[in-house]
Amino acid sequence: MTVYTHWCRTRMQQISFGNADSCEACGAVSPRVVSAQCDEDVIPAWVVSFAAAPYVNGERDPLGVDQHAPGAKLDDGKTRVWLCVAGFSRALGEVAKVTTFGAVKYTPNGWTKVPDGADRYMEAFGRHALALGSGERVDDQSKCLHKAQMIWNLLASLELELRGQSCIA
User: Fold this and answer.
1) Residues 19, 25: contact at Cβ < 8 Å?
2) Other CB atoms closer than 10 Å to residue 89's CB: what's the count?
3) Domain range annotation of the chain
4) Burial of 97 (C-beta count, 10 Å sphere; 0-12/13-18/19+)
5) Phi-psi region of 126 (alpha: psi -120 to 50; beta: other; left: phi over 0)
6) DSSP annotation string for 71-136
7) pLDDT digits (tens, 9 = 90+) for 32-69
């Protein structure tokens, strides 16, 4: 089954629908995929978007604006980083305090050079989890929240893992 998505102006959110001809909320018409009889390995001849304009590499404007029209921004479906940053600004501020403490205590970004860092940061995460579980909210040495320390250690371990370093299975 083909699934279509579009920005529903009625519900003010991205809506997905299956083989229906249109969105139930706003009536937007599904794109028509035109091709000669094709299988999964053949790319359709062209795709007509909700705004009746083709788009490049599957990118489209979330409001259906033609990609060549003034004000178009082909960012539909892309990661919404600012949503994360703005939504977790206080928590990320606390994690930044941990980063700053470590940069002063050791060296800026020195954590990236720690041998077996991905594994060792998971162990540090565990130690902070135990301290938090024992009722200790703030780390005595850094004066940072244990939860912020835990998140920092998870982020460091994840970053190193994504860079190709090993991690505890």
Assistant:
1) no
2) 9
3) 1-78, 82-162
4) middle
5) alpha
6) T----TTS--HHHHHHHTHHHHHHHHHHHHHHHHHS-TTGGGGSTTHHHHHHHHHHHHHHHHHTT-
7) 332 333 333 333 332 333 333 344 567 888 888 888 88
Tokens (6 digits) for 93? 């501020």
At 134, the amino acid letter reads S
| Helix 146-162 and helix 117-133, axial crossing angle in degrees, nearest 10 | 160
Per run of 10 residues, the mean pLDDT along the chain (length 169 residues) is: 61 65 64 35 33 55 86 86 93 97 96 95 98 98 98 97 75
Q: Which two tokens stand for residue 102?
A: 């470590």
Give Dmax (Cα) for the chain. 69
Sign of the C-alpha dihedral, residues 93, 96, 100, 102? positive
